[in-house]
From TrEMBL:
Keywords: Acyltransferase, Transferase. Residues 3-163 form the Hydroxymethylglutaryl-coenzyme A synthase N-terminal domain. GO terms for biological process: acetyl-CoA metabolic process. GO terms for molecular function: hydroxymethylglutaryl-CoA synthase activity. Pfam families: HMG_CoA_synt_C, HMG_CoA_synt_N. Its EC number is 2.3.3.-. It comes from the Bacteria. Belongs to the thiolase-like superfamily. HMG-CoA synthase family. InterPro entries: HMG_CoA_synt_C_dom, HMG_CoA_synth_N, HMG_CoA_synthase_prok, Thiolase-like. The keyword Acyltransferase applies. This is Polyketide biosynthesis 3-hydroxy-3-methylglutaryl-ACP synthase PksG. The gene is pksG. It comes from Leuconostoc suionicum. Residues 261-354 form the Hydroxymethylglutaryl-coenzyme A synthase C-terminal domain.
Amino acid sequence: MAIGIDKLSFYTSEYVLDLVELAQRRGVDPNKYTIGIGQDKQSVIPNYEDVVTMGANAAAKIIDNDDRQQIDLIIFATESGIDNSKSSALYVQKLLNLSEFSRTIEIKQACYAGTFGLMQARDYVANHSGKRVLVIASDIARYGLNTPGEVTQGGGAVAMIVSESPRIATINSDSVYMSRDVADFWRPIDRTEAIVDGHLSTDIYKEMFLTLWQRYKEQSGRTIADFAGFSFHLPYTKMGKKAFDQIIDEADEIPQGRLLKNLKASQKFSRQVGNLYTGSVYLSLLSLLSYAQDLVAGEQLAIFSYGSGAEAELYSITLQENFFKYVPANETKKELADRKKVSVDQYEQIFNSQLLDSHENVSSDHPDADHFQFLGWQNGERRYK
Ligand code: HMG
């Protein structure tokens, strides 16, 4: 039985920062950000959003009554968790009115965890015929004001329903993966911003991609000619290109042109949003499916997932008949275009107004919106609506 991604959705906050304006404020040539890093904008996450609200807001777009009856497991992947004990999946289960007769769990390994969640979901469905799994990958990328990582911030959530007979893509059983203890990026439990060795992280990312690509070819017998496109984890869009440049000459001229065009398609949403850690590689997939003009059912896409620390996985998916009908391309484009622009001053004020102290009974600065929101702390408890 074919198993894979039946539905896919994305949510990010309603605020956006123009990175040309950020570059001007930081005294940097804007071309460094828009060309050197490959980012145009970044989502700014206000204090009434967190990984729970963004995850629930993403999932709310795709859950229907059939899903409510058949979702047996909710996997929440994040490295921006809001509690050291309680899983974010429990909050989502309640907000979305999902059945209490389901399993709920939160998982972590930097940006890689969303992919682990997806693989667990596929294996779970294989062993529980007729059941569906909700996988959420939700994060806020925070490096700090005026740091080298600032231009690579962002945030948002991707939600996916994994089921039998998926309408978008099957997940093929051809993964290759690797893990190694590396100090390229981490966040001690008492800190709100990551510690990062940016250049080391870039090198490890490239090295792991190349190593896994060689291993994938050996184990599967496939070559670059078997793929219509690649989706990469995109902490910034240039990162995917740096990795891909290592292998692109393996393709003949005409397919090479197509692969590079589709790489650009896979970067478009991330250019506007920034890093969203666990969800980033799946935003890249959504972007590829939304912008590539020439993909057809039966074709295969390669997915490269990387999480600092470090762990990586490379695998393929196969596009299903009429897959494009189930991809929220126009909706996502519209939501990104409709975001409200904030000035650098407003962004800095929002950055510094996060409600991090559970000892204070406070309310968040939330507008009266339709989306799920974090309302603030009451006696150490997070409150949502
Ligand atoms: P930096 O050191 O300020 O930038 O930080 P740089 O000096 O390396 O310049 C970046 C690029 O801009 C270079 O191009 C420059 O030449 C170019 P490259 O050599 O790389 O091709 N440049 C210009 N281009 C045009 N016009 C100009 C100009 N000036 C310079 N005027 C860095 C960059 C990415 C290191 C920093 O932003 C950072 O530390 N970011 C956070 C870490 C990160 O994103 N790492 C990526 C791999 S690790 C990963 O993906 C995992 C992660 O998502 C976390 C997780 O797993 O949880 C991060």
